[in-house]
Fold Endonuclease-reverse transcriptase.
Amino acid sequence: MEMWFLRRRMRIPWTAKKPNDTVLSETKTKRALINKIRKRKATFFGHMIRRERQEHLVMTGMFMGRRGRGRLCEKTTDGLASWLGVDSTVEMIKMTRKHDVWRGMIANSMRHGTG
């Protein structure tokens, strides 16, 4: 998702067969842009998890049914957990309940540029 945003921001069409490495090396403010995307993703995730409605189930991937064929998609929770420096997604979901702690984790990750 981050690469899709980055390519859109740089106006690189999907038909251009550029690998991700060259796209990342071409951006001057790639780290600032990626951190801004991650911050918005993390704040939205915290908002959805605290609501505890149907969106909560979709964001965490806990709904009934069979998995589709092919390779597993990367989960939003896994990417956020690695960026925030949390060991497990369960621990991260517990942290979203405490709004001040969650905002502090996001601010700390923005400051230190982890991930």
About this structure: The chain has a mean pLDDT of 77. The first helix runs from residue 2 to 10.
